[in-house]
Amino acid sequence: SGINAEYGRIETVGGAIYAYTSPGALNLGDDPVFGVGGDLAFNWGYTDNGHRIALTGGNLSPEDVNDDNTHGLGNHFHVNPKTGVAHSEIWGHEISNIQDCPLATCRTVKMQGTDHGTGSHLISGPVYGNYAIYVAESQSMFPSSTPLSFTVPGQC
User: Fold this and answer.
1) Is 139 helix (H, G, I), strand (E, B) or coil?
2) How far is the C-alpha of 124 from the C-alpha of 27, rounded, in Å?
3) How far apart are CA 80 and CA 70, in angstroms?
4) What is the pTM of this model?
């Protein structure tokens, strides 16, 4: 864990202080946040792919492996991960589910919703819910570790 200056990768340490999922939440097994453990990895870049947020418990492709197999939030295949400049707009996608779907063999990369490019391998799917991620240097930065009381209507 730490920082990789070349790609701008940053990994948190210590895992989640607090995580909340709605009672009755569905699809947690392949959810890009709640489906894997580990720490947050920001700006995960490798070959011509980039991901704003992934978790270290999922697959984090090495810098020199072009397998399109890291999944998370704010993703783009076929981009310069060092500059953020896309080589093609058809491979951008906001939320991809956890899956073992390497480029050479996989032709169905499962997405949440329809907010993705027109790349032939990007497959729309249900939206699981909403995500809010807060990062601090210590737990004392948060007002309380006690869950907030609120009701979430329906199921995600």
Assistant:
1) helix
2) 15
3) 15
4) 0.83
Q: What percent of the chain has pLDDT over 90?
A: 57
Contact predicate 58/36, CB 8 Å: yes
Q: What are 40-78's pLDDT values in tens digits?
A: 999 999 999 999 999 999 999 999 999 999 999 999 999
For the sheet with 3-4, list strands across it. 3-4, 9-11, 40-46, 49-55, 73-77, 92-95
Look-up of token digits 């895992």: 15
Produce one character per residue of 82-95: b if its CB has 16 or more CB atoms within 10 Å, e if not.
eeeebeeeebbbbb
Please identify every stretch of the chain with a pLDDT value under 70, giving residue numbers as ranges. Answer: 1-8, 17, 142-156
Beta-carbon contacts of residue 87 (< 8 Å; ≥ 6 apart) = 48, 78, 79, 80
